[in-house]
């Protein structure tokens, strides 16, 4: 249920409603817009208490929510959510550019690539310190040392960074350093992890599971939002299909569908979808054309030496080429991408 307050409802009336909702055994989530407050109620079965709540002081009306996801649904939040990270604004109609190495390999490598990303128009740095690898013999990431390196890169470039939390045990350490916490595709339905990340209350980048439906993806976003996250960005990174010409199949069709169903920003990862550098720009442009709010792109200046996902990394100059072409596509759509001015 969504309880819409009268525009002139007082703080005390909102508090009283919150208390009442808790006494009923449900969870209230206060939402605020200019001149408007609402309380989203979760944990209830059906909307049997609707008439009772509608009778309380300060309440304008109570709307039943028909979707299984509530806080993620457009029914409770008709406008697009805008999520600010440094100077980047996800969901404001422009295209945010996140870029960086797949993995933090060393301080030198990360600082070099971060500077390239920054001077070529990237707004947010990416880089994994804890890496989920298919093989236990592959590079597993530098752990906390990698987070320290990312923090140094942030200091040097001014770029906020997003990095993955692999398990609930490392959420707090990741949250201590990161501006945005990434949930990887393999963990999208790790509900214990989602709850732990929700509780720290930092912005989250939620990658779609490689075989997750849209509803399952939004239910995972709901886990985050109902446990304390206020800022969740969803990322389409390609799904498993019979096709084997690309690492994954970029599911462009989910972008308009997600934006219809949810107020949360949606970005795409053309690097992990394509798996090959030559497909990254086409996938990225397709995503922008379909209405994505941003891109997350692997960039490496020495891809042949990369410890993770070298074949899909763009060279810095290829990243500039992407920015250049994407700027044209964005201009045709009345949007900007990355920093408006390359520094
Ligand atoms: C990543 O972005 O570093 C990553 C591991 O991606 P995914 O979870 O989409 O495979
Ligand atoms: Mn990768």
- Discrete helix count: 11
Q: What is the strand content?
A: 15-25%
In this entry the ligands are: phosphoenolpyruvate, manganese (II) ion
CATH superfamily of the largest domain: Aldolase class I
CATH architecture annotation of the largest domain: Alpha-Beta Barrel
List the quaternary state of the chains: single chain
Number of separate structural domains: 2
Word description of this protein:
- An eight-stranded parallel beta barrel has the order 7-8-9-10-11-12-13-14, surrounded by seven helices. The protein has a four-stranded antiparallel sheet with strand order 2-3-1-4.
- The protein has helices spanning 11-23, 50-54, 107-119, 144-157, 171-177, 191-200, 214-226, 254-261, 270-274, 277-289, 316-332; strands at 2-5, 27-33, 36-42, 59-63, 83-85, 88-90, 96-100, 124-126, 161-164, 180-183, 204-207, 232-236, 266-268, 294-298.
- The chain has eleven helices and 14 strands.
- It is elongated, with a radius of gyration of 21 Å.
- Helix content is 34%, strand content 18%.
- The model has no long low-confidence stretch (mean pLDDT 95).
- Helix 3 (107-119) packs parallel to helix 4 (144-157), helix 6 packs across helix 7 and helix 10 runs parallel beside helix 11.
- It is an alpha/beta fold.
- It binds phosphoenolpyruvate (PEP) and manganese (II) ion.
- Phosphoenolpyruvate binds next to loops.
List the defining traits of the structure above.
single chain; about 350 residues; alpha/beta; Alpha-Beta Plaits; 8-stranded parallel barrel; binds phosphoenolpyruvate
């Amino acid at each position: 249920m969504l309880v819409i307050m009268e525009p002139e409802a007082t703080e005390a009336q909102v508090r009283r409603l919150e208390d009442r909702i808790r006494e009923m055994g449900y969870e209230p989530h206060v939402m605020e817009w200019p001149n408007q407050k609402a309380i989203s109620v979760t944990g209830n079965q059906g909307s049997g208490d609707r008439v009772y709540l509608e009778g309380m002081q300060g309440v304008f009306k109570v709307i039943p929510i028909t979707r299984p996801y509530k806080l993620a649904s457009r029914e409770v939040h008709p406008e697009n959510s805008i999520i600010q990270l440094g100077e980047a604004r996800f969901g404001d109609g422009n295209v945010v550019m996140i870029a960086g190495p797949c993995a933090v390999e060393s301080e030198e490598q990360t600082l070099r690539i971060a500077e390239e990303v920054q001077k070529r128009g990237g707004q947010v740095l990416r880089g994994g310190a804890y890496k989920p690898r298919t093989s236990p013999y592959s590079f597993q990431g530098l752990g906390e040392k990698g987070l320290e390196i990312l923090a140094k890169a942030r200091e040097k470039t001014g770029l906020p960074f997003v990095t993955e939390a692999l398990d609930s045990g490392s959420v707090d350490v990741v949250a201590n350093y990161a501006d945005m916490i990434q949930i990887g595709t393999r963990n999208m339905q790790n509900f214990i992890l989602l709850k732990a990340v929700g509780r720290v209350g930092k912005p989250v980048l939620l990658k779609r599971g490689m075989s997750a439906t849209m509803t399952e993806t939004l239910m995972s976003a709901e886990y985050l939002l109902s446990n304390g996250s206020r800022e969740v960005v969803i990322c389409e990174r390609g799904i498993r299909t019979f096709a084997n010409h690309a690492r994954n199949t970029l599911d462009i069709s989910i972008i308009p569908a997600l934006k219809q169903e949810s107020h949360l920003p949606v970005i795409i990862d053309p690097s992990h979808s394509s798996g090959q550098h030559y497909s990254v720009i086409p996938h990225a442009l397709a995503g922008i054309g379909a209405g994505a709010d941003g891109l997350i792109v692997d960039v490496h200046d020495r891809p042949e030496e990369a410890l993770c996902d070298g074949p899909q990394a763009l060279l810095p100059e290829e990243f500039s080429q992407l920015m250049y072409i994407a700027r044209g596509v964005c201009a045709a759509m009345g949007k900007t991408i990355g920093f408006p001015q390359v520094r």
